[in-house]
Amino acid sequence: MKQITDCTVLRNGVQMPWLGLGVYKTQDGEEVIRAVTTAISLGYRSVDTAAMYGNEEGVGQAVRESGLTREDIFVTTKVWNSDQGYETTLQAFEASRRRLGFDYIDLYLVHWPVRGKYIETWKALEKLYKEGYVRAIGVSNFQIHHLQDIIKECEVKPMVNQVEYHPFLTQKELHQYCESQQIQLEAWSPLMRGELLNHPTVTDMAGKYGKTPAQIVLRWDLQHEVVTIPKSVREERIRENSGIFDFELTPEDMLRLDGLNQNRRIGPDPDNFNF
Question: What SUPFAM superfamilies does the annotation carry (predicted)?
Fold first, then answer.
């Protein structure tokens, strides 16, 4: 994890960058095109979108117009809850693929574990994976028992689990389970929508390392071997968020940040969510 292009290797051998740009709540069209174009120009090689975000078209356009080959950019998208089920997931995937304008998608995720549907949804992802339309498949917001359901019922294990993850929600048991199953953990909302950035422990470390609070938290992700996808539309923030490869937190400081855990979410609880 010494440079922005460094990758983790998923269980099937596919390389996934440790750092990506999140585009949740980024408007389609000019705003998302500008954000993705800026990120790519700064060295980012991964973009995380979703059907629900409504900006796949702009993401695809920015990637196609980047001057890089399609293989150079790792693109993630997700099937939304209302589209879950076997046939409807296959249809939703094709719609996403067409909006993006790609022949294939690098990583396709089940956005939430919709009760009674996520097993059939996963079987659709397996079909897409086996047919070569996606290079890797995974889930988002899945707890241990959801993952166990899939592993028990299906042929291909999830390769990624994207969850809310930050020093106030360390999810250690889930993280350990994912590691035991070779499932790469990925953090959404790694900065807790900015709420973490004024915490005294974080600001103290920022001063110690000569870094910003955001860089401290994102580096903590990496050193826990968690892929991270901070969202921003501002060039200075996108640049700042990438400045995490030229320093390392000490083991003591990693433990200090771990100690901030409150099991506190800013997003929905996957076990108590009105899907």
Answer: NAD(P)-linked oxidoreductase
